[in-house]
Amino acid sequence: MTNHELFERALKLLPGGVNSPVRAFKSVGGEPFFTARADGAYLWDVEGKRYIDYVGSWGPMIVGHNHPKVREAVEHAVRDGLSFGTPCPAEVVMAETITRLVPSVEMVRMVNSGTEATMSAIRLARGATGRSKIVKFEGCYHGHGDSFLVKAGSGALTFGVPTSPGVPAANADLTLTLPYNDLAAAQTLFAKHGDEIAGLIIEPVAGNMNCIPPQEGYLQALRELCTQHGVLLIFDEVMTGFRVALGGAQAHYGIKPDLSTFGKIIGGGMPVGAYGGRSELMEQIAPAGPIYQAGTLSGNPVAMAAGLAMLELIQAPGFYETLAARTRLLTDGLQAVADGEGVPFSTNRVGGMFGLFFTHERVSSYAQATAADTAMFNRFFRGMLERGVFLAPSAFEAGFLSSAHTDEDIAATLDAARAAMREARAG
Ligand code: PMP
């Protein structure tokens, strides 16, 4: 069976041929490949072609694919059953591990995806404050909950409108949007609506409009603004958690959010999410408190085993230093290749995540990210794919390194990039 044959079959039965939109390669052009297996830094498609993978299942695979320790933990757990519907010991160990690694999280609730985590955190923020409005940032993604699918207009202080049909206006009107890295806009919004806002949710390093780190002092200023106005600060660390540092972006930047959400790495490749924060807030969640949230498969023993094995591996001494150094090797290398080829190009990176932009500018805003040359990115993506390098199939996604990527993988990536940049430039 070829990739094309599978995609033809899939298109008849799955919307767009996929179970999650960006996988379809719609924005970059061409058809997706179907992965048969994955190991370390590589994916192999059903036709036997190998790819150096910088998507890492969209973040979870920080120790590389199919790590023996994670696989063995899963194999071991499976022997005892797949789901119990009662508490299991691994959930307690998971909660102990998360609260130890992320001190702002005193209590935690496990869920099954990042989307569930953010939806639940917002409900908690609303329930705990008695306020209805929330604030998010244009270009930030927090899963597909109705409150988050709100278009980021250039008029950042206006009420949001849904980007997605199906989100009721009554719901979208409660979501206020702000431009990322623009403190003055946040101050103005809070001066006007501060006492109506339940929570402000932010990706502490934006990873869903390509990769945009917060400017110096920005997160701290938001922290102070939230405290001043009784607004709960929610760090969506679904992507950044255990990615940019062991303790997440909050450890990297030294900020204490009220609530945090997690996903991806925490599940080791299984469907897991989590939200947590101060005990006095978390104790308002059912059955300790009245704010309802539940899940048939939450705290699943197999998923907990995978996540725990992953969290064990990333605590190895020097893990994040090495990961950051490799990421730097890649982004510096790509910059040198682009400069050599006369291609307008810049990069961002924090820890093990990075962004590539086809522009001369250093990108720190949504406006800049969307103004970069996406057509050139798409040509570059296809050139890289052809040469066996898999980048995220969109100009608005972050890339991820894993501890399985070697210097040789990076050297091979840079070789591919030299040819792909030349092609991309030629148009
Ligand atoms: N928040 C952030 C920051 C994310 O990057 C994502 C997914 N990429 C989500 C939430 C949603 O997570 P999930 O896809 O597991 O629902």
TrEMBL record:
Q: Which residues form the signal peptide?
A: none
By its UniProt entry, which PANTHER family does this protein fall under?
A: GLUTAMATE-1-SEMIALDEHYDE 2,1-AMINOMUTASE (PTHR43713), GLUTAMATE-1-SEMIALDEHYDE 2,1-AMINOMUTASE 1, CHLOROPLASTIC-RELATED (PTHR43713:SF3)
Write the Enzyme Commission number(s) for this entry. Answer: 5.4.3.8
| Protein family (similarity comment) | Belongs to the class-III pyridoxal-phosphate-dependent aminotransferase family. HemL subfamily.
Question: N6-(pyridoxal phosphate)lysine-modified residues are where?
Answer: K264
Q: Which reaction does it catalyse?
A: (S)-4-amino-5-oxopentanoate = 5-aminolevulinate
> Would I find Magnesium among this entry's keywords?
no
Subunit: Homodimer.
Q: Which NCBIfam families does its entry note?
A: hemL, PRK00062.1
Query: What pathway does the UniProt record associate with this protein?
Result: Porphyrin-containing compound metabolism; protoporphyrin-IX biosynthesis; 5-aminolevulinate from L-glutamyl-tRNA(Glu): step 2/2
Q: Which gene encodes it?
A: hemL_2
Sorted keywords for this record are:
Cytoplasm, Isomerase, Porphyrin biosynthesis, Pyridoxal phosphate
A UniProt-annotated Pfam family:
Aminotran_3
HAMAP family membership? HemL_aminotrans_3 (MF_00375)
> What is the designated name of this protein?
Glutamate-1-semialdehyde 2,1-aminomutase
Record flagged with keyword Cytoplasm: yes
- Enumerate the InterPro entries for this protein: 4pyrrol_synth_GluAld_NH2Trfase, Aminotrans_3, Aminotrans_3_PPA_site, PyrdxlP-dep_Trfase, PyrdxlP-dep_Trfase_major, PyrdxlP-dep_Trfase_small
Q: Which domain of life is it from?
A: Bacteria
| Predominant subcellular localization, coarse grouping | cytoplasm
Compartments in which it is found: Cytoplasm
What cofactor does its activity depend on?
pyridoxal 5'-phosphate
